Amino acid sequence: MLSPSEGKMMARCAVAARCWWAVGGALAVAAVLAGLATSTESPASSTAAASPTSQEARLRRPVALALAESDRRLLVANRCGSVSVIDTGSLQVVAEIVLGRRLSDLVLLRDGRHALATDEEAHKLLLLRWSDAPPSLRVVARLDVSPYPVTVRVDADGRRCYVASLWSRRLTIVDLATAVAASDASDETVPTLRTARVIDLPFAPRLQLQVRDDRLLVADSFGGRLAVVDTAQHRVLHIRKLPAHNIRGLALSTDGKRLLVAHQILNDLAETSHNDVHWGILLSNVLRWVVLERVLEPQGHILQDSHLHLAGDSDVAGGDPAGVAVTPQGLAVVALAGVDELALGTQRDYTLQRLPLGRCPTALVISADGRRAYVANTLDDSLSVVDLQQRTVLCHVALGPQPELSLAQRGEQLFYDARLSLDGWFSCHSCHTDGHTNGHRNDNLGDNSFGAPKRVLSLLGVADTPPWAWTGYVHDLRVQAEKSITSTLRGPRPPHEVVAALAAYMETLPPPPSVDSLRMSTADPAVRAAWQQAVQRGRAVFQQQGCGTCHEPPTYTSRDNYDVDLADELGTRHFNPPSLRGISQREAFFHDNRASTLEEVFTRYKHQLSSELSPDQLRDLVTFLRSL
Ligand code: HEC
Ligand code: HEC
To answer: d(Cα 558, Cα 553) in Å, to the nearest integer?
Structure first.
């Protein structure tokens, strides 16, 4: 049964849904929904008027959700730096508060009065004070954390939190001590933030999940690794590897025995032919149920006794699975970011039921009673509210008016859109994860042939490094984008605007920062000085060896192709040098990943050495390369 307010909401949704198709476009929907949000006479809308930011036209880009006030309020962290507050009864935006530069995550503390947010651009953890009457959030403390924080999780006892930082590849453990607040009312205490420990990780992390009191899992943002962290001893116990990439959802089953992972699998033995794409042989989208104990063990078969759900199949594929959650009743819910849908099912089902959402749904949260899901549609600035008992979408809520999208912003939507591909199997992001790379090899027609798979190239900084593709024969990013759609995604030939938008988006992507430079920015001055000297010595080795003829600074590539004694499976030997910028963010080297460390490039493959390197020279050269 629908409650009266839900019934009213459904009626409003029906209007919105008609408009969606009639005027065709997220912009129009946003405007329609924003209009609806202000036209109702609930008490909430008077608060909305007091909060002008929620009426401002801007791109919000919701990325994380947290429920507050016994699920009466939904807090939505937006990439634009604000938090939107939604009344879950009227489904109105009742406030929007700007708190930072680029928010990436948000969690509520157990006291219900404080929240933590990560600001990916300011490199800070924010402690926020939440109060409901009227809805407000303010920053009460800021802590510098390792650069590029993307997620934060709080311990079960609420005394500690963990911040995963993407490009600096670190986990910052923060103590949440409590202090009597000077500015707050009388006996009120607020948590304070203090860094307890910083742990280096061997990969760029994103998602985290506390799976036991003393165990935290941290997942790779691009590839398939999981770090098992002992939170009592503050150390990484071991690294487990799943046959996976793009791990975008992590949850525990209701009984706590299984780890549910939403990810993709790319098969480097398959080709981007119509057949291999259509049958899901090339790339599959899965919801994997792994036995938690297998993950926590240091070794052994991580997949033993695991099973999986395919998120879609031929003709109706479910590209780019993202946020997952499991309700107390055992219903698993997963956002399919590439096809704008939600998939629902239980551990024992064979198939998943699917519901339509807004554009690029990523994060989701379930109400405590398990009856509702709220999903953030990142690329159209809306939320979808889903009734999990009826298995229907109740409503889409616009977070506010949107400006007209620029060409590059439309390109971003397309980059994450699996509907450009045959059957909706995958998007550009499926391989070029968030513009970077999943690190895998893939056999596409990038080299105009099947039979010699190549490493997926990072597109971060791609605008500066023409010509493109390993064989360096593409001179226009639009040509590459069109080719990627038709011969990698196996989609229909795109109109010119699609190709132009994708190229414009790729041109906005900055190169990835160096892991070592980020870590050294916060290091002890003596350690930093020693590192800088090693970088200088390594630069001298680079110059003496003549590396710069092919890897010319500042992009560390050049326009020609060279034969450097590395043939592919079909005998091709001439390749365009990959840029060495951001090389510390790569996992393996050369066109087919044959070198698994940077050292190996020079020790095992003796890559273009005019003279043998001493161990010191090798160390300095690698230090220099890793600083780029
Ligand atoms: C199935 C995996 C996969 C998908 C999906 C994919 N690519 Fe690629 N992409 C690759 C691989 C592999 C290469 C290198 C191929 C080569 O050069 O032989 C590459 C190369 C590129 C390059 C050249 C980069 C450089 O520095 O030279 C661009 C640009 C590119 N892709 C854009 C896109 C766009 C845009 C999309 C979506 C329309 C897309 N790709 C989808 C695997 C993929
Ligand atoms: C004659 C041109 C040339 C010279 C000189 C040269 N390289 Fe390269 N380099 C290449 C090419 C081409 C590739 C890609 C080869 C392949 O993957 O098959 C490459 C690949 C690399 C890679 C792997 C990058 C990746 O992402 O896989 C590194 C690292 C590298 N070079 C560093 C160096 C250093 C250091 C020197 C000097 C000792 C050097 N190169 C000299 C042409 C050159």
So the answer is: 9
Cis peptide leading into residue 134 (ω within 30°): yes
Rg (CA), the chain: 25
CA of 446 to the centre of ligand 1 (A): 7
* Pocket residues: Cβ below 6 A from ligand 1: 272, 283, 426, 428, 430-432, 442, 444, 446-447, 454, 456-457, 459, 462, 465, 468-470, 477, 480-481, 484-485, 488-489, 502, 506
- Decide: 575 in ligand 2 pocket, CB within 6 A: yes
**What six digits make up the tokens of 314?**
């031929």
73-78 long-range contacts, Cβ below 8 Å, gap at least 24?
A: 73/132, 73/135, 74/365, 74/374, 74/383, 75/106, 75/108, 75/115, 75/130, 75/137, 76/106, 76/376, 76/383, 76/399, 77/103, 77/104, 77/105, 77/106, 77/117, 78/103, 78/381, 78/399
CB-facing half-sphere around the CA of 249: CA atoms within 13 A:
34
Q: How far is CA 499 from each of CA 42, 460, 493, rounded to the nearest angstrom?
A: 45, 18, 10
Ligand 1 atom with least separation from CA of 462:
26
* Digit-coded pLDDT (tens) for 447-484: 888 999 999 999 999 999 999 999 999 999 999 999 99
Distance 575 CA to ligand 1 centre (A): 16
Read off the tokens for 397.
Answer: 């809520």
Tokens of 229: 């962290």
Q: What is the pLDDT of residues 525-553, one digit of tens each?
A: 999 999 999 999 999 999 999 999 999 99
Q: Look at the chain and count its residues.
A: 628
